[in-house]
Amino acid sequence: MPGLTIGDPLPNLQVQTTHGPIKLHDYVGNSFTIIFSHPGDFTPVCTTELGAMAAYSEKFSELGVKLLGLSADDVESHKAWIKDIEAYCNGCKVTYPIAADPDRRIIKELNMVDPDEKDSSGNQVPSRALHIVGPDKRIKLSFLYPASTGRNMEEVVRVVESLQRAANHKIATPANWKKGEAVVISPSVSNEEANRMFPQGYKTTDLPSKKGYLRFTNVE
């Protein structure tokens, strides 16, 4: 995918938001941060998405994760729209900042430009994109959805929990993994190292190849 993607450093942009001006690196600090763009204020799917983010904001806070919304609309539009979002999600409060980008500069630098959609004036609009940024200010994961498909917040929570565990242990999470389930030990870890690193033990899956690379353990 062209432009900013997994492994790249987050540009340290200054952005205007509903909480005032912020520098991206200062905002991220030492936390995981979710930066998510939406095609436009006062639109149906985007209203449901930002409402869902508001509803999940306490969960993200428990995980130590910050949120930052973004679209090409201006700050005053965002502030007016927040009333609709909060009404839709039954009074959930939009406590996270929403950044404005009327010049379309930020969405270009963050690789959040929709390749197909344009507004009524023919201007580019943000894609329905989401970057998860690590404390090292690098992109750890990116989602890109078409304008017609809203994001699944349970999946966003799941991948945050996966990334946080992988950052603390030499593990990866298998297909369909959920919090509380077993993880797999990285192939770069020898059995001797695994015995030291995972005193709780691990189970090696018996495979036809007889290669003991599929090792499951549990971590918090």
Automatic annotation (TrEMBL):
EC numbers for this chain: 1.11.1.24
Active site residues per record: C46
SUPFAM superfamilies (UniProt xref): Thioredoxin-like
PANTHER family tied to this protein: MCG48959-RELATED, PEROXIREDOXIN-6
Function: Thiol-specific peroxidase that catalyzes the reduction of hydrogen peroxide and organic hydroperoxides to water and alcohols, respectively. Seems to contribute to the inhibition of germination during stress.
Organism: Salvia divinorum
PROSITE patterns: THIOREDOXIN_2
Catalytic activity: a hydroperoxide + [thioredoxin]-dithiol = an alcohol + [thioredoxin]-disulfide + H2O
The protein's enzyme class: oxidoreductase
Name of this protein: Peroxiredoxin
Name of a matching Pfam family: AhpC-TSA
UniProt keywords, alphabetically: Antioxidant, Oxidoreductase, Peroxidase, Redox-active center
Residue ranges of every copy of the Thioredoxin domain listed in the record: 4-165
Highest taxon of source: Eukaryota
GO molecular function, one term: thioredoxin-dependent peroxiredoxin activity
Family note: Belongs to the peroxiredoxin family. Prx6 subfamily.
